Amino acid sequence: MFRPLYSRQSYPIVHSVLALLLLISIPDASRAGASAPEELVLDNGMRVLLFPHPGSGMVASNVFVGAGSTREEDRYAGSSHFLEHVLFNGTTRRTQEEIYAATDRIGAYNNATTRQEYTHYMMVVPLQRLAKALDIQADMLLHSTLPPEKFEKERGIVLEELSKDKDDPDYRLERALGELLYGPASAFARPVLGTEETIAALPRPTVVEYYKRQYVPSNMRLVLMGDFDHDEALELVRKVFRAEPAPGPQGSDLAPSAEQPLPGPSCALGAPAGVTTREVDAPNTVVELALTLPTATPEDAAALALLAHIAGGTKSSRLEQALDREPAIPHEETSASLGYRQGAQLFVLRARLSEGAALIEAATRLLATLRSLEQIDEAEFAAAQTVLLTQEISQKEKLHYYALFEGDRLWHMPEGFTQRYISALEKTEAAGAGGLAQRMFANARIQIVAAGPGIETKTMELADLEPETEMVRALRPRGSGPAIETTRGRPSALDADQPPEVIQLDNGLTVVHTAAQSTRMFALHLLVKNRSLREPPGVDGIADLLHRSLAAIAEDKGGAASSPLDRIGATLKVADNPWIPYDDYYSTPLYSFIRLECVDEHYSEALELLTRMLQGPHDDAVAIDDARKEMLSAIQRAGARPSGKARSRLRELLYPGHPLSHAVMGDGQSLAGITPEMLSDFASDYLSPDQLILSVVGNVSRDEALAAVDATLGQLRVRGAGTPTAPETPLTGQTTREEIEGGGKQSSIRMGRVFDVDPGDRWALIVAVRIASGRMQQDLRETRGLAYSLGISVGYYGDRAVVTASMGTRPENLDEAEAGMRSYLFGADMEATTEEIETAVNGYLSRMRMRRITSMGQAFNLGRDLFLKGGIDYAEREATGLTSVTAQDVTRVAKRYLIDGPMVTVIAR
């Protein structure tokens, strides 16, 4: 049946215990013990929310500050986002360099983002370094000096960020939709980043004044998640977040303000009920239907969230059905959401339309979808409950971006909301949700807005779009009967955690398994080997097209009220999403993937569903066409940005004729010629079990998991002809420099070279490159203000290394930026200090740990390490190798490899 190939007893297992499990059951969701969330207000007015989850070894400290674009008076425009940058530049106790070095030395991730109603500061750190992390974070927020000598540099960085965003067609669409929805004079239409005009004119005294008013503990909320002791953590928080900021140095202008923080305005739509449209230079048209609702109780909020999922949470949602009705409205994606705002909740339906779609008819169908929610079927409602409850459990594993995704809810909702909300998700009934829709939606002011290319800028009456009753009724389930019973099979309780082990089934499928008692999630990660190498000539992108079309099998309702995916509350991912932090490393020619995760009680059904996806059939013309349109739109959007053009061209020049030069999604020409028959034939070879690595992570024991895997995926037949031998990565033999037309506000520079490397130098070269990258960032970004994002990285293909560097900058900075980048890529005279090495190593290992926090993160890394890194013990070998690097090693490898030589350079101007 199967045999073990490799095991590693000492491999570190990282899991999160989910405190949420004490609050809900799906069913019997109480096995993993943990403390319930606690909310309190400190004496200084700071609100604190504690989510203890023992077991991960990591803690995330998220501080929300009431400083967003909606709180800015005109004279402060852009100050919230500007402060997000400036606060990393120095405090009364630390210089900017000391902040960065201290953060990396303790292995912490320190970042921030500005939203409309708040700024969010996030620090993720190993448990044993929590005290130092909180001290750094509080010091930045409460004791910043906003150094005058750094101010102009940050102005340049923010202007670079604005230039980058202006090259993004989605940014232009969002700006236009915001102005149409709220009205151009609304605080909610104010650009979060400011504008080039406001940033260029923003004086430091104004930013200082805003900082002193807004950055006080009483205007902050701290959300602490992870593996911490309740009493010790609370004492640390009280200690570092004092009631008032300490006064700055003598003569400082940073004494505390006597003025109260500026409050946020209530959210309201700015125009009367109706339809407004605007022409925008973008590849697609986006249409939104929005209505503001009064701030709801937790029970009503739960019902509204369930309604939003039914409306547009899946590929088989009511909104998808509405757009697919004859005549179908061609579209690329749809969604529905419930947003939390100051004084209101925002219920939004959204569709991204394909070229040539009938805009007014699409808007009518969005309205029909909303009207249909007054009648809810019990089966589809039960599926929505399963999905949202599962998401609540899953998100608690995501310490590194839970608060990023749930920030609006965490910031706005009052004490006790979270626990009542989760309980209500489980207890709400279909009839009650439908009745709520009748009451709330009937009296709400509905606004429909659309922006995109070639559409007339105009306003219409909403009555002109009112859908026919028959269309509304057609979207309501007609007696679909009771919910289809799922085969719940809770796994047997684990006696102890089980470290990773590699097993091979008789059909060649490689399985990596590990289990821990502390999780309720069941993660399946399927890695398909050698993506671009196995694609037939002339059809680049066929593997990605196959993966995207596979989703249709999991989402097909087959006449039922809900899809197989929804019935088990599973999350499926078949293609990369570059917008999710730490989730942008799948778009590679080396492999493709399928990710499927659910709560443990549905583990057997998840395996059955994954098996059906692999078995096919894979010739569904509709699913293929939908996937093709999705890919063409993504290709078009990437190609509209100079960074995308430069990245693509560098790949072609760096790996000429090699599979690594292939575009993962292909192009319009390669995709156009792929027929259903071609895709089906390709799938037979590409998805052959001997070419797959399945990683299984959760709380299902090895014997139980392997028996279930063998009964499902183990029955797949070997159908492929094997994998052709991959050619060796080409060495960079000559200097090439190419300029291409970028067509945007910001230019992009990409450089790279491939060279042989001694295996014994691998770890030291990683450290040397990280030090060079840090020095380059400090010089070109933090001192000269030439870029918003830049860096140098190194990767390995066998005994060859590829070093690449990237930077986005405005055209007037190109010569200085290119010269600066070269000086660090050719840094042969590098002399590294012990502190620099410690900073580089700890920072790198911390990022790697963060990628393994969740069950799915572990599953991905185990499969990738086995395929590309020579074994599932790679993380241990990497940590051992990196921590043994000395200053002499760094000097030696810099002199050997970071030398003047052949380099490929691409500039998208």
Topology:
Elements: E1 2-7, E2 38-41, E3 47-52, E4 58-65, H1 79-86, H2 96-105, E5 109-114, E6 119-126, H3 130-142, H4 148-166, H5 169-182, H6 196-201, H7 204-214, E7 220-226, H8 230-240, E8 274-279, E9 285-294, H9 298-312, H10 318-324, E10 331-341, E11 344-353, H11 359-372, H12 378-395, H13 402-412, H14 417-427, H15 430-443, E12 446-452, E13 458-460, H16 469-474, E14 498-505, E15 510-515, E16 521-529, H17 542-555, H18 564-567, E17 571-573, E18 591-599, H19 603-615, H20 621-639, H21 642-654, H22 668-672, H23 676-686, E19 692-698, H24 702-711, E20 736-740, E21 747-756, H25 762-783, E22 790-797, E23 800-809, H26 814-825, H27 834-850, H28 855-868, H29 874-883, H30 887-897, E24 904-908
Helix pairs in contact: 1-7, 2-27, 3-8, 9-12, 9-14, 9-15, 10-11, 17-19, 17-20, 17-23, 25-26, 25-27, 25-30, 27-29
Write a compact overview of the structure shown.
The chain is an alpha+beta fold and 909 residues long. It is 40% helix and 19% strand. The longest helix has 22 residues.
